[in-house]
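Annex B. Sample input.
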Amino acid sequence: MFAIHKMIAAFSIARIRKANARFDGAKLLAANTTAIAAATPSRLLAAFKDFLSLNDTPIPAGDDALLVALLRANRGLRTFADIVVRAGVLFIADDAFDYDAQAVAKVLAKADGAGFAMLAELRGALAGCEWNKDALHALIERICRDKQVGMGKVAQPIRVAVAGTTVSPGIVETLMLLGKDKALARIDRCLTLRGVHA
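Annex B, continued. Sample output.
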């Protein structure tokens, strides 16, 4: 990793080879990952806003607090496009995304619809829960403990219901980004798939 002034100092015409330069996409991606991890929060926010201004995404660009929350929820990203892949669906209409058939089969319909049953129970619990990180985290942990299941058995049905796939930010961050009304509406929509997969 060279800063511009170091590249200038190290440059020499005598060291230029006759062979063509080679572009290494994997190295560029690794360098970008390192640069994002090292960036200050303000630099990262400015770069993310630049990315949104140049790309057509469903993520609204005018709310700095929202963008900061998205950056925090997607720690470890390689490029800003990763945020769109993981969280873009959270910013489209609740009925405007498709459910991934493999995710529904694996997470919800498998084992005689165990995921659907978990989701139906979670829907009621979420409806009565205060919508903040601590309360949502405590609720999910309590259900895991009461049902004696791992986090995946609770988080994944919610994730598929609200994002249509098994990929999203952490489940509490996902729910917070969506808000209570949208999360419950998406869960209700997903539960209508039960009859199709019975």
